[in-house]
């Protein structure tokens, strides 16, 4: 092979890799496999890992991003969790097309002039069609919760919500507008909660760094931090792993000047009280296994977010146990 051709291939592959690394909003790319025999659906890609169920022959499974580890493929049962099956126990029907991620990452702004104000006023559903499933999700990402007293939730609440939502509407898939009502009222330990509910959560920044998203449909594919949501990973314990946390997001519309990724990094180690609306980010799949991370997906155990954040407060005391979410005097505004 000629040197020039080798260089060209290297550049192309590098560009594709960069595009995949920056595309965070896309629906996960699925292939399809079908079981050719009864097989175990495992929680990890090794023989010693426990199986959560047995998959019958001739069952269609989603092959998540073409992910393979050793003898195992990462798959998903529709309206179910991700897991692992032996590659020898399935036949490939459709290979995942990863090139679509690169194309999405290169999408150009869909509003003129190219400003967040124009996007907000002219494109209430971002770059998605107004009557589409994606358009409704974009609109919900900008929707402020109702006024009132927020419900104090815990990280266990997000686990309960995730289990219910997967069974009701799936994950990594579009949710038709007519089905979105199914996740507005879910039984939790704190009562009935769902998409749009006003909640508050005591949390810490995770070990991951707060950062701006890089051109999303909801924000008309505009670039720069000022025009994009701020992606913040939070956990139950100080500097906990992102895989053990959830994502909360600040939207660019009417965002305070000091709500920047640089300012947010100064909050590391502090006890935070985060308020805002619950949102189910169905365009992704969960990615909570630190030993077997899924590339291209945010690290988190639940797809439920606080999005948008409407208030961020800092505990005035040193320990999390000293600040009561119900006691206003324990907190100061960020």
SSE layout:
Blueprint lengths: L2 H20 L7 E6 L3 E4 L8 E5 L4 E10 L2 E5 L5 E5 L3 E5 L4 H7 L10 H7 L10 H9 L9 E3 L1 H15 L16 E3 L2 E3 L4 E8 L5 E2 L17 E6 L10 E5 L10 H5 L6 E9 L23 E12 L15 E3 L1
Parallel strand pairs: 8-11
Antiparallel strand pairs: 1-4, 1-7, 2-3, 4-5, 5-6, 9-10, 11-13, 11-15, 12-13, 13-14, 15-16, 16-17
CATH homology superfamily name of the largest domain: Nucleic acid-binding proteins
Query: What's the architecture of the largest domain in CATH terms?
Result: Beta Barrel
H/E series: HEEEEEEEHHHEHEEEEEEHEEE
Give average pLDDT, whole number: 91
Structural class: alpha+beta
Number of helices: 6
The helix content, as a percent range, equals 10-25%
* Poorly predicted spans: 1-24
What name is given to the CATH topology of the largest domain? OB fold (Dihydrolipoamide Acetyltransferase, E2P)
How many domains in all?
A: 2
Q: What is the general shape?
A: globular
Biggest sheet details: 8 strands, mixed
Number of strands: 17
CA-atom Rg in angstroms:
21 Å
Query: What is the strand content?
Result: 25-35%
Query: End-to-end span in angstroms?
Result: 58 Å
């Amino acid at each position: 092979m000629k040197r020039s051709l080798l260089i060209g291939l290297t550049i192309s592959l590098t560009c594709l890799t960069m595009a995949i690394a920056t595309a965070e909003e896309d629906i996960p790319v699925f292939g399809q496999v079908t079981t050719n025999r009864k097989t175990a659906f495992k929680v990890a890609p090794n023989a010693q890992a426990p199986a959560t169920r047995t998959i019958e022959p001739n069952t269609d499974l989603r092959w998540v991003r073409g992910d393979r580890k050793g003898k195992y493929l990462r798959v998903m049962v529709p309206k179910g969790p991700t897991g692992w099956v032996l590659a020898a126990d399935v036949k490939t029907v459709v290979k995942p097309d990863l090139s679509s991620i690169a194309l999405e990452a290169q999408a150009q702004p869909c509003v003129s002039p190219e400003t967040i104000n124009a996007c907000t006023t002219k494109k209430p559903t971002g770059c998605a069609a107004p009557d589409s499933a994606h358009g409704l999700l974009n609109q919900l990402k900008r929707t402020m919760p109702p006024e009132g007293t927020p419900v104090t939730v815990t990280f266990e609440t997000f686990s309960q919500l995730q289990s219910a939502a997967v069974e009701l509407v799936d994950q990594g898939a579009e949710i038709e507008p007519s089905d979105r009502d199914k996740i507005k009222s879910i039984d939790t330990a704190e009562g009935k909660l769902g998409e749009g509910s006003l909640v508050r959560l005591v949390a810490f920044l995770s070990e991951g760094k707060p950062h701006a998203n890089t051109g999303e449909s909801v924000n008309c594919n505009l670039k720069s931090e000022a025009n994009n949501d701020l992606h913040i990973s939070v956990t139950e314990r100080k500097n906990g792993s992102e895989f053990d946390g959830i994502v909360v997001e600040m939207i660019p519309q009417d965002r305070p000047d000091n709500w920047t990724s640089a300012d947010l990094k100064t909050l590391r180690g502090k006890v935070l009280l985060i308020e805002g609306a619950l949102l189910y980010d169905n365009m992704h799949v969960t990615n909570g296994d630190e030993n077997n991370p899924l590339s291209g997906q945010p690290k988190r155990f639940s797809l439920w977010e606080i999005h948008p954040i409407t208030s961020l407060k800092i505990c005035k005391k040193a320990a999390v146990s000293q600040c009561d979410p119900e006691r206003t005097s324990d907190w100061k505004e960020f």
